[in-house]
Structures are given as structure tokens and as C-alpha cells.
Amino acid sequence: MRILIIEDEPGIASFLKEGLEEEYFAVDVAGDGRKGLELALTSDYDLLLVDWMIPGISGIEVCRQLRKEGVETPVIFLTAKDTIEDVVFGLDAGANDYIRKPFEFEELLARIRVQLRRRGSEGGPLAAGLLSVDPATHEARYGPAGLALTPKEFALLEFLLRNKGKVCTRSRIIEHVWDMHFDSDTSVIDVYINFLRKKLDAAGCRNLIQTIRGVGYIVREGEAEEA
């Protein structure tokens, strides 16, 4: 397994490299965003560890450029930022997970292993009434109209549709959609649910995603109302 570390603090980069090599990972290090992006675009990595604030171009921009170029390698942000707005911003840029500095190496290693174990299964199109989601093409439509969803919005809607008729708890959503394990930060889910509802409402699909107070969310066949 090969990991790229994009980190400008030599002490942190060295600490991570040594620890990961002891776990038998092959590790490359880039000290700035431009070099990191170049390596990530031209070499084959199993996972990227990216510092949010790095010289050259930011970790956010590195992630955006990778996703724009179709690179789906898992990205874990290393960051001191911790507001819900920052979390949403980073995840929407295409990150799979994040860990706050300072962190314990064992926690980071566990998060890395979760990402490396993850296997996407595309399956066939999913539907609820006039709403359809195709995981193979990453297209979502309500009737003839396409829905412009961010990657995380699409993943969240796909997960809810895969579990149609079942209550999806916040802990299940955060683990399956983001592969994270929050104690209290599951409020990020509510932010994305709000984003999704607004876009569905604008398309004419109302009341598709229902709140189960204190538990999570559910999609039921036949509950959506056409505007």
C-alpha cells in the first residue's frame, strides 16, 4: 500500500512517514501543494494525507483539482480547523475524512485502515417515485430534470435510497457516507439534509426525506409529493 503525505511541517511529515513505514506502508512526502498535486496526478497512491494549510496551493485546492481530474483516491485532511462550516467546506471539496491536529497516531492509522478497506459497489439505478439515482454514472434526476448535486449530497441521497423504508440513524449515515466516527459532530448531516431538501424542493420533489426526531432520517416509497 502506498501513501502520499502532503505536509509542510518537517517534524509532522517525518513523524507520519516513520510511523507508517513501521506499519509496512510505502510513503512519499511532498512539502507543498503544487508538488503534492503533481505526484498525486502522475503516480498511483492508495491514500493521500493532506494538510489543509500548505504553501503553493491549499489542501482544499489539491483535493478539488484531483476530483476534477477524476482521481478518486481517498483523501484524509490533517487540520486544526474544527467548526462545522470548515468540516462541510472540506468534505464538499471531495475529502473522505479529516482528523484534527494534534492527533494520536493510532487514531489516524485506524481511519486510514477504514478508507483502505472501503469497497464501492455501484449496483443498478435506485428510485423513489419520479426520483432516480444512478450510482454508475453519478446522475440524479427527478422526472426528466437533472439534479445538480455535490459528491457528498449524491452519496447521502444514494445511501438513503439504498435503505428506502428503513430509518437511517445519524451514526450509520456518518459512517457509511463519510467513513467517519463522530461523537457529537453529526450535525454536519443535518446541514447536508437541508441542502438536499432545498434542491429536491426546487425540482418539485417535496417531503421525500423525512425526519425521525432524535434518531435520523427515512425515505419512504410514495411519500414524496410533486409540487
Automatic annotation (TrEMBL):
<dbReference type="GO" id="GO:0000156">
    <property type="term" value="F:phosphorelay response regulator activity"/>
</dbReference>
<feature type="domain" description="OmpR/PhoB-type">
    <location>
        <begin position="123"/>
        <end position="221"/>
    </location>
</feature>
<dbReference type="InterPro" id="IPR039420">
    <property type="entry name" value="WalR-like"/>
</dbReference>
<dbReference type="InterPro" id="IPR016032">
    <property type="entry name" value="Sig_transdc_resp-reg_C-effctor"/>
</dbReference>
<dbReference type="GO" id="GO:0005829">
    <property type="term" value="C:cytosol"/>
</dbReference>
<dbReference type="InterPro" id="IPR001867">
    <property type="entry name" value="OmpR/PhoB-type_DNA-bd"/>
</dbReference>
<dbReference type="InterPro" id="IPR036388">
    <property type="entry name" value="WH-like_DNA-bd_sf"/>
</dbReference>
<dbReference type="InterPro" id="IPR001789">
    <property type="entry name" value="Sig_transdc_resp-reg_receiver"/>
</dbReference>
<protein>
    <submittedName>
        <fullName>DNA-binding response regulator</fullName>
    </submittedName>
</protein>
<feature type="modified residue" description="4-aspartylphosphate">
    <location>
        <position position="51"/>
    </location>
</feature>
<keyword id="KW-0238">DNA-binding</keyword>
<dbReference type="Pfam" id="PF00486">
    <property type="entry name" value="Trans_reg_C"/>
</dbReference>
<feature type="DNA-binding region" description="OmpR/PhoB-type">
    <location>
        <begin position="123"/>
        <end position="221"/>
    </location>
</feature>
<keyword id="KW-0805">Transcription regulation</keyword>
<dbReference type="GO" id="GO:0032993">
    <property type="term" value="C:protein-DNA complex"/>
</dbReference>
<dbReference type="Pfam" id="PF00072">
    <property type="entry name" value="Response_reg"/>
</dbReference>
<keyword id="KW-0902">Two-component regulatory system</keyword>
<dbReference type="GO" id="GO:0006355">
    <property type="term" value="P:regulation of DNA-templated transcription"/>
</dbReference>
<keyword id="KW-0597">Phosphoprotein</keyword>
<dbReference type="InterPro" id="IPR011006">
    <property type="entry name" value="CheY-like_superfamily"/>
</dbReference>
<dbReference type="GO" id="GO:0000976">
    <property type="term" value="F:transcription cis-regulatory region binding"/>
</dbReference>
<keyword id="KW-0804">Transcription</keyword>
<feature type="domain" description="Response regulatory">
    <location>
        <begin position="2"/>
        <end position="116"/>
    </location>
</feature>
